Amino acid sequence: MPSLDRASASQILDLVHDAIIVRDMGGCILQWNLAAEQQYGWSRREALGQNLRDLLRCAHPLPLPAIEQQLLVSGGWEGEFGRLARHGGTVLAAARWALRRDRAGRPVHIVETSRDITERRKAERARRLSEDRYRNLFEALAVAFCEVEFAGVRRLIGSLGLPGGSDLRAYMLEHRAFVREMMKQAIISDVNEKALVLFGASRKSQIVGGDLEPYWPAASEALFVEAVVTLESQRHYSAETRLITRQGEALEVLLTASRSPKSRQDGTVLLGLIDIGDRIRAQDTVRRLQADFAHAARVSVLGELTASIAHEVNQPLAAIATNGEAALHWLAREELAIDELRAIQRRIIADARRAADIVQRVRSMAQRSEPERAAVDVKALLEEVVLFLGHDLQAHDVEVTMLVAPAVPAVVGDRTQLQQVFVNLALNAIQSMGAANAHYECIKAFSETDFTGDLKQIEVPVLVAHGTDDQIVPYADSAPLSAGLLKQGTLQSYEGLPHGMLSTNPEILNPDLLAFIRGEPLSAQANAGDAISVPA
Length: 536
Description:
Blueprint: H1 6-13, E1 19-24, E2 29-32, H2 34-40, H3 44-47, H4 52-56, H5 64-74, E3 76-84, E4 90-101, E5 107-116, H6 118-140, E6 144-149, H7 151-159, H8 168-174, H9 176-185, E7 187-191, H10 193-199, H11 221-231, E8 236-244, E9 250-258, H12 261-266, E10 268-275, H13 277-304, H14 306-331, H15 338-366, E11 373-376, H16 378-388, H17 390-395, E12 400-403, E13 411-414, H18 415-435, E14 443-446, H19 452-457, E15 462-467, H20 479-485, E16 489-494, H21 501-504, H22 506-518, E17 526-528
Parallel strand pairs: 12-14, 15-16
Antiparallel strand pairs: 1-2, 1-5, 3-4, 4-5, 6-7, 6-10, 8-9, 9-10, 11-13, 16-17
């Protein structure tokens, strides 16, 4: 049988990935493989013959005599210790010692195998630090957190076998029982103290281990579906919704669902919940107050219009009385004039409807109700306002001329509130004319003014300056179109400036106007825009 010489044995040990060190009972190094060289930085030639403790300065977890005693008794020892490498850094090693005896049973060699675990321990410490930091945030923040295991939800979705490109959202919205089953598969694995308070629990065991289904009302199922679909492709989802406490009480929350790449692998979703009930209640209170103030304003306007309303109602009533008397006169004749009586009857019906319409308008303004958004015909609304203010217009000798473009689109809003706005504007105009003792031929209501032809004829350089925060004339609907019609138009937008920027920001506009006249560059606040070319 072939034997191994010392050199061959060293070559074989060099093939082993663990560091192998053989020393005698006095600590003199007899064998030092390639992995030991790489681990500690000392070459085999430098290490052989050296005392191991002097070379590496070991820091053992126990006193060395105690370790050696255990080695002599059991024949082996294993543990972790630090050693000083050649480069001066400490190497943390996980090692095993085995005792070799001679034929007489006397201990002669200690064989050590070890592996560098320095980086592994650093990673473990970093992970523990990260977990501690996460745990501190999880418990300390004033946000309710719930860790939810979504692996069951993923398996349930996978069991559908939907082909690629199919609409998962549509399927779930059509199969609400499937959505409820998904909620039952979403298991709560951990919650913080804030979540206990939010859901009305006194200890974690009342929530942890359960599922989301008891806390999710049917009215919020669509949001659950949206969260699941969004987290399939994105890391975060956030929306306001309504949940249920353990006691069955409604809970208004801002919900945030998050999935990191790691949590996607282990199937964990972190839910963040902020109680917004106080905010919702405050908003409801503000809306009620606004409705009350609007109602009070409408009643106040009706008080100012008492004479006008009485006049408007009196006119159809007087016409009805006149037509009634005329009908009696015709009925007194021997020969009935059926056509004439029929015409009188139609006039009476028309006047009665006119009076009813006036009463209805007054009732709508005086009625206390929540605003209702709907499409409103602006032209018809303006005509109603002019009829409503007829008496006041006559009393102040004011004539109204309405210039309304034929294709004015309907606006979306509350009809009564819009009517109140137009009535207030018209009343203010009427009263201002009287107070100033000025003479105006008419008050004009413009819904659109077309300067297209005028702009195309301008041939001199023109600066079109417009604020992007213009709430009266939106930037996109005006400035680019105007600049496109001008032959030498220069479009400049001013970020965040309002409609009246010439008054509110003269320090920006005036220097730019002067610079434009001089042909100099404009200020940094002005941004060159893109004009929209309009065909001639």
